[in-house]
Amino acid sequence: MAWFWIGVCLAAVAACLGLWALGGPWAAARDEARVRPPAFWWPWVLALAPWCAPFVTWRMRRELRRWGSRAGLASHWQADRWLAACVLAAGCGALLAGAAALMVSAPARFGFLAALAGAGLGFVWPGQALRRRAAARRFQMMRELPFMLDLLNLCVEAGLSLPAALQQVAGHAPDGPLRQSLRDAAALERTGMERSRWLLHWAEQTDVAGVRSLVSALAQADRLGMSLGPLLRAQAERQRSERFLRAEKLALEAPVRMLFPMVLCIFPCTFLVIGFPVAVKLLDAGF
């Protein structure tokens, strides 16, 4: 039996090496952008991309454009490559689930169902990971927003105009996803786009309520001729207060989140430590 599993492992290694040898040069030749591969599986993604391109729908393109910009996805992730990555993940999930069913000597029907379930989970996993990354990036932007508003207010009160202040903030703010998104949006102004339009584009890409509120407040101040200093100061105070309220909410939710691991892990161990000597004494007493 041991020789059988050794043979299966060697066959899997040989298959991986063969796929790498066949897919690597082909994918490298088709990589027009010459981007640096983000992982060892990148050549296989490029090799599968031409086969997946006919199955890419407009809905997939819209979803990737929407969530990719919010998650800070690199520009070399096109729709066909993303679908190829999902197919590759589905294949890996089916292979792992089928191998697990084979190792426990499950029936063939159960192994087939496990492989289908693994393929489904593998196919949807990249999309879920992209959404989680977008949520984490949005949370980090919300934390960076009050300081960026303070910096913008400082530039405006120093005598700079709003476009110059935005350029200064985009160039000298602390490095982070909010600064990167503002820099990418501000670069659209050099293409001839109006300031109101690229600010709306920035608010759409970040998907942060504070940025939307800032953009709408700036548009209203531009129409009414309001002073930007008090407006930006009020926005910064509001965002700082909301950040404090979010932290307080998370602190109040911590005991509820700790309840499940305490009941599942800590309480059984505590009862075992306390009850084991009592059970031993009861057994010695003849009960």
Report what the structure shows.
With 287 residues, this protein is an all-alpha fold. It is built from 10 helices and no strands. The relative contact order is 0.05. The model has no long low-confidence stretch (mean pLDDT 78).
Care to give the gist of this entry?
This protein has helices at 2-30, 42-52, 58-71, 79-103, 108-157, 162-172, 177-186, 195-206, 209-224, 228-284. The protein is mainly alpha-helical and 287 residues long. The two termini are 47 Å apart.
SSE diagram, text form:
Layout: H1 2-30, H2 42-52, H3 58-71, H4 79-103, H5 108-157, H6 162-172, H7 177-186, H8 195-206, H9 209-224, H10 228-284
Helix pairs in contact: 1-2, 2-4, 3-5, 4-5, 5-6, 5-10, 6-7, 7-8, 8-9, 9-10
Primary descriptors:
single chain, 287 residues, mainly alpha, 10 helices, transmembrane
Rg from Cα: 28 Å
Could you estimate the helical fraction of the residues in percent?
over 70%
Q: Structural class, judged by helices and strands?
A: mainly alpha
**Could you tell me the strand content as a percent range?**
under 5%
Span between N and C termini? 47 Å
Low-confidence stretches: none
Mean residue pLDDT: 78
**Count of helical regions:** 10
Instruction: Write down the overall geometry.
Output: flat
Q: What is the count of β-strands?
A: 0
